[in-house]
Amino acid sequence: MNLPQSVKLAGIIVALVLIYFLGRGLFTAGPSISADPAPQALFVVVADTVSPEEWSAEIVIRGRTEADRKVVVRAETAGVIAGTPALMGAMVSGGDVLCRISVNARQALLAEARAAQVKTKLDYDAAVRLNKEGFRAETAVAAARAAYDQTTAQVEGARIELSKTDVLAPFNGIFDHRNVELGDYVQIGDPCGTVIQASPFLVTGAVSEREVSKIEKGDQGVARLATGETIEGVVRFVGASANPATRTFDVELEIPNEDGKLRDGVTADFTVFAKKRKAHHILRSALVLNDSEMGVRTLSSENDVQFEPVKLLGEDDTGIWVEGLTGHSRVITRGQGFVSAGQKVDVATTGALSGSEQ
Q1: Digit-coded pLDDT (tens) for 134-178
Q2: Residues 226-265 pLDDT 10s
Q3: N or C: the chain end with fewer CB closer than 10 Å?
Q4: Whole-model pTM above 0.70?
């Protein structure tokens, strides 16, 4: 069969191409030998070794001074003020007379009651003697005894009523304010004056929900008053229930005030020093977030990166105090944002924490 010239030419070209590729495959067959790839360099980080140290929280609280005991002393009987022997601002002792109410007829009523008591006592003694001799019945003795007991009660009542004319200081302290003057008429319950216990004094304030767990009864504190004094004391009370409006807890610092110089109601800032605990001091820049959890990246002995969650305790001018690390830890301070847990790195150590962020 005669084929066209163009078809013959196309067949020759295809045959030549096949021969070319077959021949190339025969001459290049066999395993290829390539050089081993160069080892990849490790990422370099900077790490500092930090050790546990003694740390104490310092909680600053805004508050004011407050007398431990502050009592408005009130009249227990009615009458005209006949004397005011206590001077305002003076130190008084428990039992000192602050205000004296006119006695009027109270002394006479006491004398009358005592006279009646003497008479009923004689009647009772006579009834007992006659009863023993058989001339008086037991009922008569009982009636005489009842009369005597009644007059005895009247004497005691008259004596107490008379004693109420002296309005007395309830305890040692400062007579801070007098409410009456000579000639004033007072009713039962009207104020005579105010007595403030001199010592101890309190500095009171409130702390937030975040801070209250750091403070315990017995912690030391220092208060700085608006009047310029700096005084030391001890935490006496930490509230167990929050103020529903502010969600804060009351704290009381007890201050000795033997000289009576402290004043009630003075604005004060007081610092409470919580009990010491072990903590690590690191640079602020070392903190990282891992799945919304705050922590730091540390290095194992084999220079493998690890993530350690920590709790922020406090801060100062040179860094922050954290809880959660154990023993001596190598904390990555540079490059921590470019590595992940489990990664092996190379380390350049800067030495001990210098106290300034780099």
Answers
A1: 888 889 889 999 999 999 999 999 999 899 999 999 999 999 999
A2: 999 899 999 999 999 999 999 999 999 999 988 888 889 9
A3: N
A4: no
